[in-house]
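discrete fold record:
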Amino acid sequence: MPHALNFPCRRARWRLAISLLVLLLSIAWRPAQAQSCYISGAFGMNFGTVTASGKSATSSVTYVCAPDYSGGRTYYYQVCIYLGPGDQSAGQPTRRMTNYNGAYLHYDLFADPAHTQLIGGVGTTPVYQLTVAVPPNVTETYHAPVHGEVYPGQSVPAVAPFQEQGIQGLLRWRYSTTTFPAASDDCSNGGEGGGSLNFNSSGVLATFDNACWVAASDLDFGSVTPPEQQVNGQSEIRLQCPVGTSWRLGLDNGQHYAGGQRRMARTAGGFVTYELYRDPERTQAWGNTDDSMASGSVGQDGSVASITVYGEVPPQPDAVPGIYRDTVVVTLYY
């Protein structure tokens, strides 16, 4: 009898061990329920060559959200994207790039092409949100457009490229298997689950155009009788170049130059001589050779420079009345 009583007990233990083994196998092969997203590549933006008029550029944050590989369900994701300030922008009213020589080029990043919705770091609003419906068993790549603008009205040196590094990004997501999740505005909760992922940037880059512009107003001596005394007049040449640019301004001899004299011509014939000077005393003739040009450099404010041209018509009492004109070419060297 002792033997008969013990045998069923050993049999019960054997069955219990087999039952536990099957349960453990079932747990080990059960598919994970948490759905995740990740960044593909690195966010970066290159504005190329920028002028004082500013410039726009477009890039993207590329991300992938996991599908349902076994249950045949569509996963509905709400995604939030943050781009924090880089190593030159913290505490600044706008983002900025540096040439690492004391100059800054201001810019910003936006979620919309109209440049009204700034993209900032965690805690800023509005938050850049997107929704994607991921079909079962399909891995798809999504692109979140990022629109950049270098602000107009800036004048900076053009001797070195500008860049900003150190932009820290954050990708947050919430998901649901029935419809887009009623998640919070910052994707920190809601839906059936979610998560977050930090990512880095390859940098924001730009080069400032090493270009200048120049414009000149007409010099009008007015309406006078044939001059028995000299007649004076003046006009302005305006120019703008990148900060720190050294420049020279040359004036050619005009269309009717002869015998060492600039001349204005009358349509019906005849000439009136005149001269152009760099100084109000009219002692420094203005020409297009190294020793006769005006020169200067652009200050740190990058403002438009205005240079006065001083003109003189010497006495010419025998000149025939009429309208006299000449065209002088202004050349800017920098």
Remarks:
- The two ends are 115 Å apart (CA to CA).
- The chain has two domains: 31-208, 213-333.
- The CA atoms of residues 45 and 204 lie 5 Å apart.
